[in-house]
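TICKET: design request
STATUS: open
ATTACHED STRUCTURE:
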């Protein structure tokens, strides 16, 4: 009988190892503290009873990714895990990992990512656990992990040399079976089963001199996926992709696909008049669609995809239901009404969509934070959304050659009306200052003193008709999520939403969402900033945000 060098390390709990909807995110230097990462990994195993299970492991390639995978290997081997399926070089996009969990019927997965947050030794790292459905762990599981982190006194590990993650194949690591898989292949096969690649390829070939495409991987995990799809599968040139090599610090950039941080894409698209530009974030679950003179808001994007679902082979039998996160505009609600299907408004967090998908009640969904997806996996999927748009454009060009992004948007507005929507992010606000904003709004909501208040703006008067804290009762499991955002509605149907975000690693982020709907066709081509100018002014007055935080401008506008 083979004897392995198992060890037990004594440890003490660390404060604050509470995973949020996207796992545990902290600065790299926090994870590098002695025992810190080991404590959290052991707490995951203690919470999910891993004996005899198969788990998927991979990350977005950010700094500290490979070291953490070696830590997971050592601790998994000592905790009776049966098998780990690991992406080559430790790389797996979040959507690809969700697919691998589902395809190989694994019991769960450990994903190493801080999503769209910056990487590098002085920036962010993250660890999250996904369930056997491929989706993020529900609160009952993350709470169990957190409770274990508060009482942990030891962790078990195999004392062994690191495993080479660069070679595909089956290996052993002590008693643990390990399979190193191609990070990209399974995911590309999945997309080929969803979209009409023949239609897309024919369109791109027939219009190679008229329709230019540019995919920006932002030096995140999706670079290799982009190359496999756009270059190797669709036959585009290497010039159709940029920033396609994953780097531990994302090339010093902020891998968040929006107009502020995806400036490389915006610059090249504008300079070279590229018809279709797209970017994905650090771990591949977000996306931005941007062409010459055409920016697609995430709220419009998911509504357009839902409206054009019939053009996508995966939805040939129709859609089961549609959904959006509460802060996202109501554009998709109008599509659901026209199609005669259910529509759900859920709290921010993809796990809420997963419950509906598992119950067979949801097909397409999205978040205003550039997250879009469907029930093909249980995570949002940036590259899926990008290929969906190419599928839609190719289909539209069969009926009307020359149709581009703006044509599709304008046709959508004429059919449904337009929801002007924008989000203002105030990042790393001092927690005390952020609390003052929240407390003021809560006071107005609880006392009902906001109702009926009138505010003047540069575009007219706004009268508050409703103010409340959003809560959600899950129609599948009955769980209740309270205090998910402060909502203020106005008599003209406009609304503003305030939320404190937990996706950063330090300070607080205040997110302000504004939405104004119109059926006035003369406004359909207005810039978003002009369409919501007065509403922004009123939101800042109501919340006293600038006064309390000292911020005269947001960090990011999307």
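STATUS: resolved
RESOLUTION: sequence designed for all positions
ATTACHED SEQUENCE:
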């Amino acid at each position: 009988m083979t004897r392995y060098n198992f060890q037990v390390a004594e440890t003490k709990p660390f404060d604050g190892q509470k995973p949020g909807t996207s796992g545990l995110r902290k600065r790299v230097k926090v994870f590098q503290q002695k025992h810190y990462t080991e404590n959290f990994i052991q707490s995951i195993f203690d919470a999910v009873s891993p004996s005899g299970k198969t788990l998927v492991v991979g990350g977005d390639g950010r700094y500290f990714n490979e070291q953490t995978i070696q830590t997971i290997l050592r601790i998994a081997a000592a905790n009776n895990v049966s098998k780990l399926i690991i992406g080559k070089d430790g790389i797996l996009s979040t959507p690809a990992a969700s697919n691998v969990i589902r395809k190989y019927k694994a019991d769960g997965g450990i994903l190493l990512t801080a999503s769209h947050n910056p990487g590098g030794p002085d920036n962010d790292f993250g660890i999250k656990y996904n369930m056997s459905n491929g989706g993020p762990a529900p609160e009952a599981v993350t709470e169990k992990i957190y409770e274990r982190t508060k009482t942990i006194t030891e962790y078990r590990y195999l004392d062994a040399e690191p495993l080479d993650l660069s070679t595909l194949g089956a290996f052993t690591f002590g008693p643990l079976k390990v399979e190193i898989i191609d990070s990209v292949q399974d995911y590309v096969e999945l997309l080929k089963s969803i979209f009409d690649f023949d239609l897309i390829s024919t369109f791109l070939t027939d219009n190679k001199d008229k329709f230019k495409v540019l995919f920006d991987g932002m030096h995140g995990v999706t670079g290799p996926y982009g190359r496999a799809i756009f270059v190797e599968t669709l036959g585009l040139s290497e010039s159709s992709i940029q920033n396609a090599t994953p780097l531990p610090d994302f090339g010093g950039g902020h891998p968040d696909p929006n107009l502020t941080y995806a400036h490389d894409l915006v610059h090249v698209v504008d300079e070279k008049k590229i018809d279709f530009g797209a970017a994905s974030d650090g771990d591949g679950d977000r996306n931005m669609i941007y062409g010459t003179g055409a920016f697609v808001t995430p709220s419009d994007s998911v509504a357009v995809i839902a409206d054009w679902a019939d053009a996508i082979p995966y939805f040939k039998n129709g859609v089961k239901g549609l959904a959006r996160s509460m802060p996202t505009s109501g554009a998709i609600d109008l599509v659901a009404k026209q199609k005669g299907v259910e529509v759900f408004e859920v709290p921010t967090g993809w796990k809420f969509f997963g419950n509906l998908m598992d119950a067979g009640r949801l097909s397409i969904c999205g978040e205003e934070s550039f997250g879009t997806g469907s029930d093909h996996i249980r995570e949002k999927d940036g590259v899926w959304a990008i290929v969906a748009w190419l599928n839609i454009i190719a289909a539209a060009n069969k009926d009307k050659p020359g149709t581009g992004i703006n044509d599709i948007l304008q046709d959508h507005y004429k059919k449904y009306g337009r929801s002007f929507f924008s989000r203002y992010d105030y990042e790393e606000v001092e927690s005390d200052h952020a609390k003052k904003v929240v407390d003021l709004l809560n006071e107005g909501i609880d006392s009902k003193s906001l109702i009926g208040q009138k505010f003047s703006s540069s575009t007219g008067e706004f009268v508050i008709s409703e103010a409340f804290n959003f809560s959600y009762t899950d129609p599948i499991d009955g769980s209740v999520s309270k205090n998910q955002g402060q909502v203020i509605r106005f008599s003209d149907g406009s609304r503003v939403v305030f939320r404190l975000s937990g996706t950063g690693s330090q300070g607080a982020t205040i997110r302000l969402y504004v939405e104004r709907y119109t059926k006035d066709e003369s406004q359909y081509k207005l810039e978003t900033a002009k369409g919501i100018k007065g509403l922004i002014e009123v939101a800042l007055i109501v919340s006293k945000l600038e006064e309390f935080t000292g911020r005269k401008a947001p960090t990011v506008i999307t």
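CLOSING REMARK: DSSP finds 18 helices and 27 strands in the chain. The first helix runs from residue 28 to 31.
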